[in-house]
Amino acid sequence: MSDHDMTMRGHLTPFRDYQPKHFLWEVSEDGRVATIRLNRPERKNPLTFESYAELRDLFRDLVYASDIRAIVLAGSGGNFSSGGDVFEIIEPLTRMAMPELLAFTRMTGDLVKAMRKCPQPIIAAVDGICAGAGAILAMASDLRLATPEAKTAFLFTRVGLAGADMGACGILPRIIGQGRAAELLFTGRSMSATEGNAWGFYNALHAAADLEAEALKLAHSLADGPWFAHGMTKTMLNQEWAMGIDEMIESEAQAQAVCMATQDFRRAFEAFAAKRKPEFQGN
């Protein structure tokens, strides 16, 4: 086992002390909310082979992070992310053979899988450019806030690729509908913030000066809530895509029974009876 694995899975140090190499990691004073900040503002925060892999590994490890209860995903310098770096990713890809290409596309898909499987709700705070793989990161998040200036584009077709990238053909239609998703994935055009808000891609729009504060406010409200149950909600939202109605109902019956067996469920009742706010502890 690597030092990284021992640290993250063995909790030799808390996640607040995690030190990534290819993005920033900031943890709130109470240790419950973490911000992942893409931090190459001079290039509009593009992704590289290394940052893809490090993000994948972090989201996988967050399964073990009982101290982190919600995640904010943001960019630096007024932009979210311009996607895969043209010279550090796209150009090398043109020289790779099929086995290397498949290894890369599976690795990027594994990042989305890790984001969906980590129990913490992920809130994307999107400003400015949100394109290509950057748009995928926003799509793979659980909630999305944006500024009126945000421009979101699934522009894979513009570089001769299919819109079927990192789960876009499966996930995007479930968020905004089949017809709208088809238009964006075929044309590669930018979706305005107004469109994204009206179509349900964005949960709310905020002024740029307020965006991250609003994202953190939402993250803290989730972190202060029944976060074990939130993790269950996220799991069921993902699992039920492939279920029939009978399987959905049975699966939710089992999930809710598990939540009813927690002390948080009892704490909520006792707080309600005493007319006070419950203090959830995740057990």
Radius of gyration: 19 Å
How many domains, in number, for the residues?
2
Strand content: 5-15%
Annotated CATH architecture of the largest domain: Alpha-Beta Complex
Quickly name the level 1 CATH class of the largest domain: Alpha Beta
Number of strands: 9
Tell me what the structure shows.
The chain has 283 residues and is an alpha/beta fold. It folds into 2 domains: 221 residues, 2-enoyl-CoA Hydratase, Chain A, domain 1 (Alpha-Beta Complex), CATH 3.90.226; 47 residues. The chain contains 12 helices and 9 strands. The longest helix is centred in the middle third of the chain and has 20 residues.
Could you write a compact summary of the structure shown?
The chain has 283 residues and is an alpha/beta fold. It contains twelve helices and nine strands.
Structural features:
alpha/beta; 283 residues; globular; 2-enoyl-CoA Hydratase, Chain A, domain 1; single chain; disordered N terminus
Topology:
Layout: H1 3-10, E1 24-27, E2 33-38, H2 49-61, E3 70-75, H3 86-93, H4 98-117, E4 122-126, E5 129-131, H5 133-140, E6 143-146, E7 151-153, H6 168-176, H7 178-187, E8 190-192, H8 193-199, E9 204-205, H9 211-223, H10 227-239, H11 245-260, H12 263-273
Parallel strand pairs: 2-3, 3-4, 4-6, 5-7, 6-9
Antiparallel strand pairs: 1-2, 7-8
